[in-house]
Amino acid sequence: MKLILFLAATIAATVAFATTTIPTGIPAATVPSAFRATAISKINSLVTAVNEMQSGAADPSADGVSHSRILRTHYNLATSGSVGDHDTSGTLPSGALVIRSYSYIDTIPTTVGGLSGTVAFYCGSGGNLMAATGVSGSAVGTLIEGMSTGAASAYKKMSGACTVQAAVGAAAFTAGKLTLWVEYVINN
Fold first, then answer.
1. 69-186 is a CATH 2.60.120.1110 domain
2. How many CB atoms are closer than 10 A to CB 70?
């Protein structure tokens, strides 16, 4: 994230320099066009690099420096709290190697009749991101460790792209919001 912010600041400064006025106060129109063309070419290269990093379009199989990615998805128990499986808005790409996953209670989960309800998160196979966990009445700010805990033995490999699913069990929910974070790298 710091790299993206740095690149964004660099791009903004370079754009200002190449298109308006150079620091000495000389109007950009008097700066040689070859210099402006080079500066704009460099800006375009930086923008392309940032877009590839954000979209994951950079070649993940190439050797060199890689970075982990974090998928964040929200799940609203008030609108999708019935017992069963529900889509979230999150998708993991093919080849994702899940390093760690955890969820955060944004709003206290409550169930019909105060029963004890569970939520599990998975992508492809049941509970592979977070096992069924009793969340009824959990306080706002509670963090719940997922199946992938950061230990290599707990990594999960996704064989294909998949939408993260929430599995509600034991009792239907009437309220509550959770955020799920999934840290992964691409391993093709």
1. yes
2. 12
